[in-house]
Amino acid sequence: MKYVSFLKATNFVHNLLINRIPEGSTVIDGTMGNGYDTLFLHEQVGEEGVVYAFDIQKLALERTKEMLIENNIAIDSNRIRLIHDGHENIGQYVKEPISVAMFNLGYLPNGDKEIITQNSTTIQALSAALSLLQARGIISIVIYYGHIGGLEEKQRLMDYVNNLNSSEYTVMQCSYLNKEKNPPIIVLIEKNK
Q: What is the mean pLDDT of the chain?
């Protein structure tokens, strides 16, 4: 069996969310990337749930389709909607309440490192996801910021979440203490009851 660290940022988030996604719910992968979160979300929502996955890069859609096919998942169903558009346009596609939204900020791994998430569109996307989030729903954000523009996005995003109304949302930050070179930061937002 292949060892996968529980403390790898994306694995950590998956383990936190695994029991928080009700079967049949609607969820969002705001940054499709290579499809790992899309696949994870699909496995959690079951036969009646819907996954909306967004990315501006055609390569991300292709890689995600490949991953889903490798896992014998029909990509032509309405249960997984791969959307070639920016996550700032979530509100144009998703109308129903969501239980979870996931974002991994930065650039597409093994892709064009010049194409990065931007603080303005990320905050728009987060605002849209928050407006759809049902009570006890969670948004996860993994902030990768060791690239040009990453520090600015991280700071703007942290300012935004620090100012969320504490009576409406609980915001938690998880970070690595002994890693060098801008280790990822995990932000979790739960909508209060």
A: 92
